[in-house]
Amino acid sequence: MAHHAPAPPRVPPPGPDEESAHPRVLEPLLLVILVVLSAVGAVIGIDLVAKLGISANTSVVGALVAMLIGRIPLNFLRRMRSVHRQNLAQSAISAATFASANALLTSVAVPYVFGRKDLVWPMLAGAFIGLVVDAWVLYRAFGSRLLPADAAWPPGTAAAETIKAGDRGGRRALILAGGTVVGLAGTLVSLPLSAAGVAFLGNVWALMMFGVGLFFRQYSPDLFHTDLGAGYIPHGMMVGAGIVALGQAVHLLIGRRARARQSAPAPVVASVAPPADPATAYTVDERGLRRALIRGYVLFTAGAAVLAVLGGLLGDMSVPGLIGWVLFAAFAALVHELIVGLAAMQSGWFPSFAVTLIFLILGLAIGIPSVPLALLIGYVSATGPAFADMGYDLKAGWLLRREHRPWDPYEREGRRQQFLAALIGFAVALVVVAVVWRSYFGQGLIPPVAKVYADTLRSGLGDPHTVRTMLIWAVPGAVIQLLGGTRRQMGVMLATGLLILTPQACWLVLGALAVRVGYRKWRGPAADEELNLVGAGLIAGSSLGDSAQILKT
Predict the structure, then answer these.
(1) Which ranges of 383-464 would DSSP assign to H, the alpha helix?
(2) Highest-confidence range of 136-140, 165-169, 338-342, 385-389, by mean pLDDT?
(3) What is the pLDDT of residue 267?
């Protein structure tokens, strides 16, 4: 009697998250969703920055919308259940939000408030160029020793944990949901619980210095009978810390550590250790980082030259002066994005306004004429926010893709698709800003930071002691940054805290750090995942609350 082999078990078709190729932004359904979400994000960003002076991280909003679309019981929408498509959705909406609010609208408002409405369109073109170059540099440098993927990037971690919890459900979803509700409730009583969420996710030393800076900014009038934020003291500390941070970046670019490791003899090991997770390796070496930053400077220089031509600076400045202006504008844009990116990487907060103001003061000190300086400040302010936001988005994608095998090609293609999603967001933001800026500015709805830039341009340095104060306080900022090293960014974070006046945020940061240290001693390594979920929930809830404020306006 013949024996028949049993039929092989039926293997179910691969789910949306088991695709061998990474989803692409040009998929028709996904492209439509990205454009619609980008338009929503651009409107939210413009409205909040013009009416309330705040900016919201809408990446969690985009992820939640993509999740809901994937749960609609229609077969062609099932593909949106993929966490990688949801990652592309949150990348596009957050890029559009930051681009419209922090980069484009704020930049074009500077010459408008200064009284040169004829320079709005040239400024919009220059700001868009700076915005795209800004994001491109981060895209090419993410995963290097300077901007490692395994650094904190707290909002990116929050977005990834939100997407993963929505996909897997269970206990993770409950913890995340609880943190989200608490964070959302905090916005209703004006309590910045996102600060506590960041403290659960970021570098402990960096955030401790951040909390100390927040404390002295809030309580310096009572403790020292002076406002540390009003006398350019934090600006001076940021100058010193920024110079050292730039030197630390140059040290990495030279690649001394890499050459030292290559010249050292290989250690002899008694046993073969299991292979490390490839997702924790650096995907950009010192040579690649150096190439990205050099090309970024060249592109920033080209963008500044375009702005100079469109802004009519050829007739206002001598040829040597114009060349100096272009080179200085490119240098300021590159340094601005690096300092802002390093602060955002560790804390989730980026001091774009303060660093731009530093270059404004330096421009006044070296005697740049007012109109060219207004254009320079608009150009510089367009960089930085997109750099930080791209870091958040790539961090979220890195966390979502790290379990995929083979990892490296999938990760690189995922980053490329996220960059393309951001470009879609930028393009939509450009269209929205071009359409609405006349209406908003005509009603007097202008970003507050643009008014500060314009007022500073009109008044000049005023107090002759300003530069002296900044130089004096640059010394402790430089020393602290040097002691903390590249990974901790302690000087930059202390200066960032001193620049921010958010009531009670210091207690939330320092208290959350104390809870984090104590809870980890009690629970061990298992505490990290739980605290990450709680922190992600607090940030997600605060982001939802900030975005919802558009309903009030």
Answers:
(1) 385-401, 407-442, 448-459
(2) 136-140
(3) 41
Q: In the chain, what is the straight-line distance between the N-terminal and C-terminal CA atoms, in Å?
A: 82
Please say whether the beta carbons of 434 and 104 come within 8 A: no
Find all residues with CB under 8 Å of 377, minimum gap 6, and list them.
110, 356, 359, 360, 363, 453, 457
Name the token pair of 231: 């006398």
For CA atoms 115, 121, 122, 127, the dihedral sign is positive
DSSP category for residue 348: S
The SS3 call for residue 57 is coil
Q: How far apart are CA 394 and CA 400, in angstroms?
A: 10
What are the tens digits of pLDDT across the range 400-420?
998 888 888 899 999 999 999
**Separation between Cα atoms, residue 146 and residue 292, nearest integer Å:** 12
Q: Report which listed range, 187-201, 350-364, 412-426, is most confident.
A: 412-426
- 27 three-class SS: coil
What angle do the packed helices 448-459 and 352-365 form, to 10 degrees?
10
Half-sphere exposure of 135 (CA within 13 A, CB side): 32
Helix (H) or strand (E) holding 292: helix 286-310
Residue 204: burial class (beta carbons within 10 Å; 0-12, 13-18, 19+): middle
Give the pair of three-digit tokens for residue 213. Answer: 């800076």
Distance CA 146, CA 26 (A): 32
Half-sphere exposure of 440 (CA within 13 A, CB side): 26
